[in-house]
Write a structure and sequence with these properties.
Blueprint (H helix, E strand, L loop, with lengths): L3 E6 L8 E6 L7 E5 L2 E7 L4 H17 L8 H15 L7 E5 L7 E4 L4 E5 L7 H14 L7 H7 L5 H15 L13
Helix pairs in contact: 2-3, 3-4, 3-5
The structure holds zinc ion.
Length: 188
Amino acid sequence: MSTARVTVEPPRFDRPEVEVRASSRRTKTGAAHWSGTKIVVQIPARLRGRERATFVDELVTRLLAQRPQHASSDADLLARCRSLGETYLDGIAPAAVRWSASQRMRWASCSPATREIRVSSRLRACPVWVVDAVLVHELAHLIEADHSSRFRALAARYPRQREAAVYLEGYALGLGLASEGDSFEAER
Ligand SMILES: [Zn+2]
């Protein structure tokens, strides 16, 4: 016999929503996986207080550091966009999303006319939360084409947007890409 107690921790600046399933079947080990934009963790039911919080933190941090988009397909990107659009941008969805090896494009591009988003293959090496920030940025362009204050407010609904920009600046330096100011999309 087993029981699972489910609690939901709302998104914080450093992580998405986390659903915690405390199971009496688990005694020592935990597990974590993505469910849409949410992380689901399974932990032993006996954990309490700080020990429980640390256990959850470690599972979440480990999952956030993984790089599953190495094997991500265009269909995976589209599913991710739909989920992010639901969560942050009132259900906005692109017509298509695809990985692109174009060297002219820095991180991503969006064509408001065709509602198509392209994502640079360079981002396959980045953590999921960074790619999510880029996708929310491009989705916001489906509502607001230029980088207006309204656009920035929409993009900033994704909690780690600024942190992702800093990450990508460092990543660009590491790749030897020239710095050219606000060059989220070199090709627009
Ligand atoms: Zn942009």
